[in-house]
UniProtKB/TrEMBL annotation:
<protein>
    <recommendedName>
        <fullName>GAF domain-containing protein</fullName>
    </recommendedName>
</protein>
<dbReference type="InterPro" id="IPR029016">
    <property type="entry name" value="GAF-like_dom_sf"/>
</dbReference>
Length: 205
């Protein structure tokens, strides 16, 4: 893990030092997309196609979560609207400061009204009607908080996976699949943390 994070740190530091800010930012986004592609390709291709598995990275700006990169790029349901740390699986992961897995099969394809509590009429996961219209086809979501690297770490982003199928169809389809998958993402999120830190520092300049 040291060599993985160290290698990516060096890779990012080169364009950060010698390239213009816009190019450096795009370089970081491209590295992020490569990482997301690699993560998805670790899942069986047949399963991946069957459940339309996708992933994305959100960057945290205060209480707002904004899309930074996605793979596949043109199949991201959450990038066109804004999310907060009080909404959805991504917000829940930030608040709990740990990975969150949601099974949405019982709500998939249903109208927004099905999310409302019968007593207080508040929606599940705090999501709005517009947000639900963009995600109602999903059957499962996994959100993993991304921490900054250093002595005083903080959550600076979220790594998300979503699928039209249930979590049993891909994350728990075989013994130890979930354990191995989450173990791998725990390593990768350190690299993503480094990338987001570099990009955040560039924006502050």
């Amino acid at each position: 893990m040291f060599f993985v994070t160290g290698g990516f740190s060096l890779l990012i530091a080169i364009p950060q030092t010698f390239a213009p800010r816009l190019i450096r930012s795009r370089f970081g986004d491209e590295i992020t997309r490569i990482i997301l592609q690699d993560l998805l390709e670790s899942v069986d291709p047949e399963i991946r196609r069957k459940i339309n598995l996708r992933c994305n990275v959100m960057v945290r700006d205060g209480s707002t979560l904004k899309m930074r990169a996605a793979y596949p790029e043109k199949t991201d349901p959450m990038g066109t609207i804004e999310w907060t740390t009080d909404q959805g699986c991504c917000g829940l992961a930030v608040r709990r400061q740990e990975p969150v897995v949601l099974n949405l099969i019982e709500f998939r394809g249903r109208p927004y009204e099905s999310l409302l509590d019968p007593e207080d009429e508040l929606p599940k996961w705090g999501i709005t009607r517009d947000q639900w219209e963009h995600t109602r086809d999903l059957g499962s979501i996994v959100s993993i908080p991304i921490f900054s690297i250093g002595p005083s770490s903080a959550i600076i982003g979220v790594l998300n996976f979503d699928a039209t199928g249930s979590k049993e169809e891909w994350l728990e389809c075989e013994p130890y699949t979930k354990e191995q998958f989450l173990k791998r993402t725990m390593i990768v999120r350190r690299v993503l943390g480094l990338i987001l830190m570099v990009q955040t520092n560039m924006n502050a300049l």
